[in-house]
Amino acid sequence: MAARNFLVIMMDELSRDGVGCYGGTALTPHIDALAARGTRFAKAYTPSPICVPARAAFHTGLYVHQNRCWTNAQPYHGQIDSWPHHLRRAGYETVSIGKLHYRSAQDDNGFDREIVPLHCVGGEGWVMGLLRRQDHTCYDASGFAADIGPGDDPYTDYDRTVRDRTLAWLRDESRSAADSPWSLFVSFVRPHYPLTCPPEYLELYDPERLPPIRHGGARAEYRHPVLNAMRQYCDYDDHFPDDRARAVARASYFGLCSFVDALVGDVLRALEAAGRLEDTAIVLTADHGEMNGHHGFWTKMVMYEDAIGVPLILAGPGAPRGTCESQASLIDILPTALDAAQMEGGAAYPGTSLFDLANAPDDPDRAVLSEYHDGGSITGFLSLRCGRWKYVAYPGFAPQLFDLASDPDEAVDLGLSADHEGVRNQMRARMTAQFGDPDAINERAFADQAARIEELGGVAAIRARTNYDHTPISYPDED
Predict the structure, then answer these.
(1) Could you give the CA distance from residue 303 to residue 371 in angstroms, rounded to a whole number?
(2) C-alpha distances in angstroms, 147 versus 207, 246, 249?
(3) Is the pTM of this model over 0.70?
(4) Average of pLDDT values for 283-309?
């Protein structure tokens, strides 16, 4: 049976270590069961390890340097066609439920309906990150270490609301759409911090029995000026009073992974109860990962695997059972949507349909890109993942190079190794040929951000704005 409908389920800040079928620590039986009936992409990546740019790239099928939604203060606002736009023109009903993190519900984001959408604050987003050349002290990360352990939070309540509205839509409206196809984007906020976790899920994890933090604390790599600057800016780790608090924070993160997995299970059961399981293509993924203390970092905003690696699962008609080892990216979801709808046009985009990747022999030579141009970055971060290698360009500074085949935990940086100069040169040439010169991309980002700073009234006006560490929940008056 061919797929008629297209369902995308996205979590926020869900790392591979937060999913059981990736060998992760978290207990996620419902996501694991979905993977068992479809394709698990073992090497999937976000286009950017921060929310707004990642979601703009996912939505448009274009890399960050192509859509120029560089930061959390340069959100998508309907200016570029997205996969919902394409499906809507093909006769699909297009619906979103939950977090979008675009500019506004008043923009045409491609959806016929946006149900309880969460967008950027004031249509502007987190503007402080624009001052990455002017102000390296404006980020207050102190609340992260305090908001841990058992408890409730507006993010948890919001996700339950997203779940409830999704169940109602599947029950009441997916059946009525039997004569026309639909696409549904269900987007949860968890396990994004604050790391306050419902007690019944936190109790699944003993903080004293978790796998240890890898390469924590102040390590030698912070002699690299770019990473040192980011470590000082994102100083989450410095606010924990002791290792016990770090362990509680990590247990809370895994508990939130299990919490959101239970919500996914509710959605999949409702899809089956509505009679739409067998004719719906399902994609499950996350916008980016979570460092969870590794390498001394928490949250994301760096190019280590824990931050840029994401779970990615394809299930339903046309998805073979098994694991795909080809590199994949969130930009692949737009051509996947077109493929599911049997539409032309996917070849015009840099991504590849996940159906094509899943049904072809593994391609270790496929290259995907991740970028970061937001707060704390004194220069751009551009990571190329190809074969066994990961190369990270920091324009104006020394690169990083990791051999992920022999060093999956990224313990040994080969960025200055004389024995690996040839590999670095090859990876830099590949990045430039396929995606563009990283120095030019970096300068374009800074130029666009300088223009945005002026649009917002200048540096002083941005400094005078209210700062925040994560997007507050607000419910619109109407869908």
Answers:
(1) 8
(2) 16, 11, 8
(3) yes
(4) 97
Q: What is the pLDDT of residues 40-91, one digit of tens each?
A: 999 999 999 999 999 999 999 999 999 999 999 999 999 899 999 999 999 9
- Token readout for 48 is 């950017």
Transcribe 52-94 into DSSP letters: HHHHHHHHHTS-HHHH---STTS---SSS--HHHHHHHTT-EE
Burial class (CB in 10 A: 0-12, 13-18, 19+), 88: middle
List, for residues 309-329, the tens digit of each pLDDT value: 999 999 999 999 999 999 999
Q: Which of 234, 237, 289 is nearest to 48 (CA)?
A: 289
What contacts 445, CB < 8 A, 6 or more positions away?
65, 70, 373, 380
Q: Cis link prior to 194 (omega < 30° from 0)?
A: yes
Token pair belonging to 439: 């120095």
How many angstroms separate the CA atoms of 400 and 413, rounded?
6
pLDDT for res 138: 73
The candidate with the shortest Cα–Cα distance to 55, out of 76, 34, 37, is: 76
CATH 3.30.559.10 holds for 5-227+241-363+442-463: no
